[in-house]
Design brief:
The complex is a heterotrimer of chains A (63), B (223) and C (237).
Chain A (H helix, E strand, L loop, with lengths): L1 H52 L4 H5 L1
Chain B lengths: L1 H17 L1 H21 L7 H29 L2 H7 L4 H30 L6 H28 L5 H28 L8 H26 L3
Chain C lengths: L2 H26 L13 H28 L2 H33 L7 H21 L5 H31 L16 H50 L3
């Protein structure tokens, strides 16, 4: 009975630990995604700044 | 149909000129059988179960190598692009590649069976005739699967490692049925006794030949 | 259709249902008379199996829709389902193995169900290895869809062959699967709550990962458009 409780405890803890680790993995991916999003925003801001300073870019890219 | 014949003829001619793939398949089959004879030990070498198992191990490994080589040859010279640019239907291309793979595998299997009989102290008797359709069904299923999957793994990084990882689990039902039916055939069991195993192999072959025929277009086309 | 609201709601119901199922397993339900306390693993093992198989089914359905409609959304769904399915399938095998040790006296036996599950695990492990070894291109998305479909097509033949393999071979152990003996209504209630808890957990994790993959593929497209616009703007005429 006591030994069997060990099995029971092990099974339930492994389940919850692995699910927790998976949530952590999703969390870390989210952090990486946020960082990527910030670089994208920076690049977009740089692009907007350049088009504001250097005149209209649309005609240039059209030409 | 002429496109099918052209691709098949091209593959066969390439192979006839160099003989590389068939030789490599035969060599690998032989090595697998030798390794298994040593691994199983002399005591088990007379058992038909061990012989059937060894034969199928040799077949799976040789088939994998053959499928990888066939695709690498196409990829290294950029020939696959030419084939895809030709006005050839992807399904026809699949059928031709499947037939070529099947022919190479059949040659390797004949060699492997002869070696198995010699190494495992069996006899060339009527059981060989019963073994032939089982091996043929196995080869059809394996070639169908490997041709489809090698088109996938051939175009990803680390592809030659991925092919066995993807193909072997999917091939398991045909493998189980094939080993069981082969062992029964080698033990001299009548054909009717392995009917259920043969049915599984036929179902596997029909399913994967049609799946490959229909899905190949999605694998090779579109980019 | 506010995604974050649904997600939070799902998260909270998962938490509540999980707590309820833990209470029911450890306090409410009577342990099986024959198998003793280890039998309580069953109440999480079965829901894990259900969500794992549901995930793998979803991979195939998403694959069919991806090949049919070509919308990246279906690929993201299939990938998310394969990943969550793999997590749950692994847990199911581990929990089942820990249950088998005291009950059958072995961690693993080549019983037909165990074999079938293990083959499924190998197949979707291969799928995930393919996805991990390749970039996220439409080509790889099609590869994933094809493998998802092929694996699902294989499942019925695997089940039949594995069952025949075990019945023709003499069984090493007399397995007790199939006779769980849920004679007490409390056992059925506990199982139901656990099933609900794991379904909610599955939906929540799937949704988290799916929205994440959606965001990632959108950002990938946006990134290439920005690169294009930057190149066009810095082009010295």
């Amino acid at each position: 009975m006591g030994a069997h409780f060990g099995y029971l405890f092990a099974a339930y803890s492994i389940i919850f630990i692995v699910i927790f680790l998976y949530v952590m993995f999703i969390w870390r991916r989210q952090a990486a995604l946020d960082a990527e999003l910030r670089t994208l925003e920076a690049r977009m801001a740089a692009l907007a700044e350049r088009s504001a300073a250097g005149g209209p870019t649309e005609p240039q890219s059209e030409a | 149909m002429s496109g099918f014949a052209a691709v098949l003829r091209k593959d066969l001619r390439l192979e006839l000129r160099s003989g590389e793939s068939t030789l490599a398949l035969l060599a690998l089959s032989m090595l697998v059988l030798v390794v298994l004879v040593f691994a199983l030990g002399a005591a088990r070498v007379r058992s038909v179960d061990a012989a059937a198992g060894a034969l199928w191990v040799a077949m799976v490994f040789a088939g994998m190598l053959g499928a990888n080589r066939a695709l690498l040859a196409e990829r290294d010279n950029g020939a696959i692009r030419g084939l895809l640019l030709s006005p050839l239907d992807p399904s026809t291309l699949y059928a031709a590649k499947l037939c070529a793979a099947l022919i190479f595998m059949a040659v390797a299997e004949v060699g492997a069976v002869i070696l198995m009989v010699l190494f495992f102290n069996l006899d060339f008797d009527a059981s060989m005739a019963r073994l032939a359709p089982i091996l043929a069904l196995g080869a059809v299923g394996f070639s169908a699967l490997a041709t489809l999957l090698s088109a996938i793994t051939g175009r990803t990084r680390g592809g030659d490692m991925l092919l066995p990882i993807l193909a072997v689990p999917i091939f398991v039902p045909a493998l189980i049925a094939g080993v069981k039916a082969s062992a029964a055939a080698l033990a001299g069991a009548p054909f009717e006794s392995m009917g259920d195993w043969l049915k599984i192999m036929i179902a596997f072959d029909v399913l994967f030949v049609s799946a490959g025929y229909l899905l190949f277009e999605h694998v090779v086309g579109g980019d | 259709m506010n995604n974050p609201t649904i997600r939070n709601w799902l998260g909270f119901s998962t938490l509540a249902l999980m707590l309820a199922s833990l209470f029911m397993v450890f306090d409410y339900v009577p342990p099986d008379a024959e198998m003793g306390i280890a039998q309580l693993i069953f109440y999480f093992h079965v829901p894990l199996a259900w969500v794992a198989f549901a995930s793998f089914g979803l991979v195939a359905i998403a694959g069919i829709f991806y090949l049919w409609l070509g919308d990246q959304l279906w690929d993201d769904l299939g990938y998310a389902a394969a990943e969550t399915g793999m997590v749950f399938c692994t847990l199911m095998i581990v929990a089942g193995s820990i249950w088998a040790k005291p009950i059958w006296g072995t961690w693993w036996t080549w019983d037909s169900r165990l074999t079938m599950t293990f083959i499924l695990w190998l197949m979707y492990g291969g799928y995930l290895m393919l996805r991990a070894s390749a970039d996220d291109t439409p080509q790889v998305a099609r590869f994933g869809a094809v493998i998802g479909i092929v694996a699902a097509l294989d499942v019925p033949i695997v089940i039949v062959s594995v069952r025949m393999w075990r019945t023709i071979h003499p069984a090493v152990l007399v397995t007790k699967q199939g006779t769980h003996g849920l004679e007490d209504p409390r056992m059925i209630w506990t199982l139901m709550v656990c099933l609900a808890a794991f379904t909610a957990l599955w939906a929540w994790l799937l949704m988290l990962r799916f929205t994440q993959l959606r965001t990632r593929s959108r950002m990938g497209r946006l990134s290439s458009r920005i690169a294009f616009a930057t190149a066009a703007a810095s082009d010295p005429k």
